[in-house]
Structures are given as structure tokens and as C-alpha cells.
Amino acid sequence: MAGRTPIPVSRAMRQVAAHLDLARRQQRITMELLAERANLSVPTVRRLLSEGAGTFENFLRIARILGMLDGIVGATDPLRTPIGRARAEQDVPKRVRG
Fold this sequence. Notes:
By secondary structure, the protein is mainly alpha-helical. Helix 2 packs across helix 3. The protein is built from six helices and no strands. The mean pLDDT is 90.
């Protein structure tokens, strides 16, 4: 069961939404055209870009249209973190059990 969204997560959602919306406006893409290209409804795109609310898939669809998908994939690469680089040579388990 999900609880309340932590404040840092809410803040990040709004910041990412603002970045996506800025990229859209810089590229002179209307909400309607972005929605069409991403195969989403205009209200869905508007909610994602104004509130940061939406599914992960819809976020990635919009990022792809705006040319940001590769950057997002790269930003989540564990080898870009100190721990990931330190453990790159080690045998990494397929599953971590608690």
C-alpha cells in the first residue's frame, strides 16, 4: 500500500514536469501535437506537464518525443554511481532477498 508521496519525490516530480514543459515550449510543440505524437490524450499530457502526475510509461513517451529519452536512460545507469562503479567487477546477484 502506497502512502503519502515523500516531499522530495513530490518536488522532483514537479521539477521534471517543468523541465519537460520547458523543452516542449523551446521546441515550439503544442500540447495537442505532443499528445498526438505520444499517442496520449491532451488532458493526460497537460496533467503530466503541469503536476508531474502520470504513469512512468507516459513520462517516457513524452521524453522520447522531446528527445530526452536517452538522457533519462543514461541518468539511471548504475555504473554512473560510485557504488555501481566500485561493484562493477563483482558478481551481482539476480535477486536480493531480505
